[in-house]
Specification:
It comes from Arthrobacter alpinus. This is DNA-binding transcriptional regulator, MarR family. Pfam families: MarR. This protein is mainly alpha-helical. It has 2 domains: about 10-55; about 55-135, Winged helix-like DNA-binding domain superfamily/Winged helix DNA-binding domain (Arc Repressor Mutant, subunit A, Orthogonal Bundle). It is about 60% helix and about 5% strand.
Length: about 180
């Protein structure tokens, strides 16, 4: 959330100056980068939240609806949803509970694994995912506030950071068929 009136200076640049002045110059760039990403997250999340709030959705709820809508049959085991969304299983359970209460998803027994539960997208959930995606694309993603080339560069830098931090591995490159 941006302040009602922009600040007359960049507080992160001032913090970096103070870091250097206090003898932490070797950590100043890292502090400024981490602080900038966290503040950018706040600003981005507030835009997403404002777009989704009228639909009664949080981004976490939309992520699960969208993930299910991308599957072949609109269903995934809860554990797979947790892994793909990169969140703790308890968080997925909480999101599923709320979506199930609103009839956007339902739980079903897994057909071949008695230990697993499937979360299944309902028709209402599919419609809401489509509506919310249309709203987010129009109000946030199509006009993010920076040029496309900057977005691509930022995404590359953050992907490299995420990969190097153990968030994911590069996919295996398969040879071209003969």
């Amino acid at each position: 959330m941006a302040p009602a009136t922009p600040l007359p200076m960049d507080p992160i640049a001032e913090a970096k100056r103070q870091w250097i002045a206090h003898g932490w110059a070797d950590a100043a760039d890292g502090m400024a980068a981490f602080s900038s990403v966290m503040r950018a997250h706040q600003l981005m999340y507030s835009r997403v939240d404002a777009a989704l709030k009228p639909l009664g959705l949080s981004y976490a709820r939309l992520e699960l609806l969208r993930l299910l809508s991308f599957t072949r049959d609109g269903a995934l085991p809860m554990a797979s949803a947790s892994a793909r969304l990169q969140v703790h299983p308890t968080s997925v359970t909480s999101v599923v509970d709320r979506l199930e209460k609103d009839a956007m998803v339902r739980r079903e027994a897994h057909p071949t694994d008695r230990r697993a539960t499937l979360v299944v997208l309902t028709d209402a959930g599919r419609r809401l995912a489509e509506e919310a995606t249309t709203v987010l694309n129009a109000e946030v993603f199509a006009t993010p506030g920076m040029p496309a080339s900057d977005l691509r560069f930022m995404t590359q830098i953050l992907a490299r950071f995420r990969r190097d931090s153990g968030d994911f591995t590069d996919p295996v490159e398969y040879p071209e068929p003969l």
